[in-house]
Design a protein that fits this description.
Blueprint lengths: L15 E4 L7 H6 L4 E6 L7 H12 L3 E5 L8 H14 L3 E6 L1 H16 L8 E2 L9 E5 L11 E4 L8 E4 L7 E4 L9 H19 L22 H21 L4 H21 L3 H13 L3 H16 L3 H14 L26 H15 L15 H8 L3 H6 L6 H13 L9
């Protein structure tokens, strides 16, 4: 018997999104919508590629004054962003253009914030503390994974904090996003793998998020939990990523695979930008801080173990089974557990179970080189309790989890991830 969907939902999106090979040609026209002075925040490696010269030449020909800021430091230390905000103010930028991976896009969001309101950035840590619109942001991702081009969050490193810190506000959603898969063709296999699996985590955690109750006569949280609008988008994201991520990693010049993964990453960002993410991300923040491993490696490593834990809930297990069906390329007729068992999805009648989905995710991880266990990335058992304690501090993420995430639950997930143990629920 299906479970009825919530009859309400929220999506916060750029005013325009362009997707497809060659879509970057829209950049001058889009930027001119917002002004004539553009600060380009770019990954340093782009200064050695024709893509940046193409962007600068196109903007200049359209009458836009351009200044390039390529001093984007990995992990985004907060001090570097305060300085970059001063650059935007001195240049009197009308619009901030972000070209690069997740760090460049997040940096652009925060520079756009500082250009309008000044610092320190610490005054905006948390949710809904940005007082109003920031400078318009036009985002062009060069990796397929973070979805930052359509989301309301940016993450920084603060030496006074043990973990990375998020700034979340609807005002940080870029004004426009241009997603051209051509940008991703040169990505190394590890970047494709770790960013791509993170995109799949976004889709999965969005689709399995808890449905939060909200009141329309009160300010909404930035992340509202699973809703009627985000569910179909999350499924479509998984449908693009499931069959194609392995291909993009194994055959980096495969244009179809790059297009599919870029589409999945974009849709995953649309989905989780409204719902939020949950346990993989809550656990990865302390894991990443301790191991200095890439974000997507950590979230991807944790995904089978988190799915294993949350599949103990029957309703969530149905949703996980639906994800398995779409990851095999089968289109659902509807969102939600009611779709499981329908002729369009297949459901348990055709072998799509939560256990099968978990096995499929584990197989993708093996194929693209995501480590299998926490022991494989150097964590000892004695470090797991501390990781669980730190994860408890991610209250926003834990609130969206479909199970009650007590310390003991988190420690159990971590222990299984350390030892490489998954529950066999195939007969359940």
């Amino acid at each position: 018997m299906g479970v009825s969907l919530p009859e309400s939902g929220t999506l916060r999106l750029p005013s325009r999104v362009h997707f497809g090979y060659g879509s970057r040609a829209q950049l001058p026209e889009v930027v001119r919508t917002y002004g004539r002075r553009a600060l380009l925040v770019v990954d340093p490696f782009l200064t050695r590629t024709p893509f940046l010269a193409e962007a600068v030449d196109g903007l200049t020909a359209a009458g836009v004054s351009v200044r390039v800021h390529a001093d984007v430091t990995p992990e985004l230390p907060v001090s570097s962003l305060d300085a970059a905000g001063a650059v935007a103010t001195e240049f009197a930028a009308d619009v901030v253009v972000a070209i690069g991976g997740g760090s460049a896009l997040d940096a652009a969001k925060l520079i756009a914030l500082l250009a309008v309101y000044g610092g320190p950035l610490s005054s905006f840590y948390g949710e809904n503390l940005v007082p109003g619109p920031v400078a318009p942001i036009v985002a062009l991702p060069t990796t397929a994974g973070t979805g930052s081009e359509v989301t309301p969050v940016a993450v920084v490193s603060d030496p006074e904090r043990e973990l990375k810190v998020g700034i979340s506000s609807p005002f940080l959603v870029p004004a426009a996003a241009i997603v051209d898969p051509e940008f991703t063709l040169g990505s190394p296999a590890t970047v494709t793998a770790y960013s791509g699996i993170d995109a799949l985590v976004h889709a999965v955690e969005s689709y399995t998020a808890r449905e939060l109750s909200s009141s329309w006569d009160a300010p909404l949280p930035v992340f509202t939990g699973r809703n009627v609008l985000s569910g179909p988008v999350a499924l479509q994201a998984a449908r693009h990523l499931g069959p194609w991520l392995e291909v993009a990693v194994a055959s980096p010049g495969d244009r179809r695979a790059r297009e599919e993964v870029a589409a999945g990453a974009l849709l995953g960002g649309v989905a989780f930008g409204s719902t939020g993410t949950h346990l993989c991300h809550a656990l990865q923040y302390p894991i990443g801080a301790l191991t200095k491993t890439p974000h997507g490696l950590g979230t991807g490593l944790m995904l089978p173990y988190v799915l294993d834990a949350i599949s103990a809930d029957p309703a969530t297990a149905d949703r996980i089974a639906t994800l398995g069906a779409v990851m095999h390329g089968i289109a659902p007729e509807a969102d939600g557990p009611a779709a499981v068992g329908s002729p369009a999805v297949g459901g348990s009648g055709l072998g799509f179970t939560a256990a099968g989905t978990i096995a499929r995710v584990a197989a993708i991880n093996r194929a693209i080189g995501v480590p299998r266990t926490l022991a494989d990335i150097g964590l000892g058992r004695d470090e797991l309790p501390r990781i669980a304690e730190l994860a408890l501090g991610s209250a926003r993420l834990l609130a969206i989890a479909p199970i009650e995430p007590s310390r003991d639950v988190l420690l159990e997930i971590l222990t299984r991830a350390h030892d490489g143990l998954l529950t066999d629920r195939s007969a359940a």
